[in-house]
Amino acid sequence: MKTVKDRFLKYVSFDTQSKDGVEEVPSTAKQLELAKFLAEELKELGLSEVELLDHGYVFATLPATTERDLPVLGFVAHMDTSDAMSGANIKPREIDNYDGKDIVLNETLNVIMKVSDFPFLPEFKGERLIVTDGTTLLGADDKAGIAEIMSMVAYFKEHPEIEHGKIRIGFTPDEEVGNGTKYFDVEKFGADYAYTVDGGRLGELEYENFNAASGRVTVNGVSIHPGSAKWKMKDAIRIAMEFQTMLPVYEDPYCTEGYEGFFHITEIEGNTEKTKLNYIIRDHDADKFEAKKALFAKVGEFLNAKYGEGTVEVLIEDSYHNMREMVEPNMHLVENAKKAMIELGIEPRVEPIRGGTDGASLSYMGLPCPNICTGGMNYHGKYEFVSVDAMFKIVDLLKKIVLTYSE
Questions:
Q1: Residue 375: which region, alpha, beta or left (left: phi > 0; alpha: psi -120 to 50)?
Q2: What is the pLDDT along the chain (407 residues), one digit of tens a residue?
Q3: How far apart are CA 266 and CA 277, in angstroms?
Q4: Cα 362 from Cα 196, distance rounded (Å)
Q5: SS3 of residue 162 by DSSP
Q6: Residue 351 and residue 209: Cα distance in Å, rounded?
Q7: pTM of the model
Q8: Strand 93-95 vs strand 73-78: parallel, antiparallel, or unpaired?
Q9: How far apart are the C-alpha atoms of 393 and 341, rounded to whole Å?
Q10: 289-293: long-range contacts (C-beta < 8 A, 24 or more apart)?
Q11: Cβ distance 58 to 39 under 8 Å?
Q12: Closest CA to 113 of 125, 122, 102, 121
């Protein structure tokens, strides 16, 4: 029988990196390869209503085993990986009985995951970890979540004597680039409530997330030979740097934690004639979020007053909003998940998400959807890893949540 680890290692062999700035969903065709594989696997497990839908969504049903009127629960995870680092040719390595010390990921390239950089590492001493080879990300975000959901439904299919309500499964593309729910049909999905399995460390349970927007800045300059540039050149690169320095220096990811928001420049490219900057803008507090967007726009207005109208073009687009408002009327989702954790000896870690999940958008689309841990850490980079021990416990957690709603 396949274990959650077996499934995870298979899923990370698929390169499903999404691409920002692409309107089409999925943003990369390669995501469809995993979607097709998962659809076939769900059919092999004996689930019903297995569908590979337009835009790469995968839906399936684990039928109820009781005639009692129970809520329909949904479990959702995303198939794509971040575009921050390559997700191709991942070479995962398992560390059994981790000693709590520095981990050499790649001796040749001298890539070391150091305790001095990640002081929580000794807390994983004695556990089985899966790490990268230091050249790619791992893909635990969110293939660990997929593996855990698949292992949960496989268990219930093998034990039809266990009473539970109808369960709906949903796997989405393009979550990492903010389009995971763009074509998600909530009515067709048909769940009363859902959980995304897209968190981090064992015990994480989240029903608050950032309000999020993208900021795109285009600086239009004037290029001319520097030898005759006086009062003529308008250097787009320099003005772009000025834009960045006018944002609050301490409202940066490097300086923030908890509920503190930030401006984060994610990309810059260009030359004297034209330079483009991409930002993400985040805050948990709705008023502070609006203030951040207003300041971002005001910087552009100031620079246009200084260098001439049309020098700086600013585009701000909302991405998602804090799900708290939608989940709070349905706090049984949080309380039942906490109860399940406690019964399994897992310490609940109820924390705000310093990011977003598909669940944030789904909550505003009428499907209340808090977020559950996957066991992964250090997402979106070469230091990403997952605890195998945690993955097995999270499978038990998902089963326990289903049973809690079956009581």
A1: left
A2: 799 999 999 999 999 999 988 989 999 999 999 999 999 999 999 999 999 999 999 999 999 999 999 999 999 999 999 999 999 999 999 999 999 999 999 999 999 999 999 999 999 999 999 999 999 999 999 999 999 999 999 999 999 999 999 999 999 999 999 899 999 999 999 999 999 999 999 999 999 999 999 999 999 999 999 999 999 999 999 999 999 999 999 999 999 998 999 999 999 999 999 999 999 999 999 999 999 999 999 999 999 999 999 999 999 999 888 999 999 999 999 999 999 999 999 999 998 888 778 999 999 999 999 999 999 999 999 999 999 999 999 999 999 999 999 98
A3: 8
A4: 10
A5: coil
A6: 9
A7: 0.88
A8: unpaired
A9: 9
A10: 289/211, 289/213, 289/261, 292/251, 292/261, 292/263, 293/213, 293/215
A11: yes
A12: 102
Total count of residues recorded for the chain = 407
Cα(174)–Cα(26) distance, integer angstroms: 6
E strand segments, 211-311: 211-220, 262-270, 274-283
Give the CA count within 13 Å in the CB-facing half-sphere of 16: 33
Integer angstrom CA distances of residue 221 from 183, 234, 310, 311: 38, 5, 10, 7
Specify burial of residue 350 (Cβ count, 10 A radius: 0-12, 13-18, 19+): middle
Residue type, 392: F
Strand (E) or helix (H) holding 196: strand 193-197
d(CA 253, CA 139): 22
Decide if 80 contacts 207 (C-beta within 8 A): no
| Given 175, 176, 206, 235, the catalytic residue | 175
Q: Is the peptide bond before 26 cis (omega within 30 degrees of 0)?
A: yes
CA distance 16 to 88: 8
Q: What amino acid occupies position 205?
A: L
193: its two tokens: 């409530």
Contacts of 140 (CB under 8 A, 6+ apart): 8, 12, 130, 374, 375, 376, 377, 379, 384, 385, 386
Catalytic (active site) residue 20 = no
CA pair distance 122, 140, nearest whole angstrom: 20
Task: Name residue 106's beta-bridge partners.
Answer: 111
> Is 49 among the residues known to form the active site?
no
Per the residue annotation, which of 15, 41, 80, 141 is the catalytic one?
Answer: 80
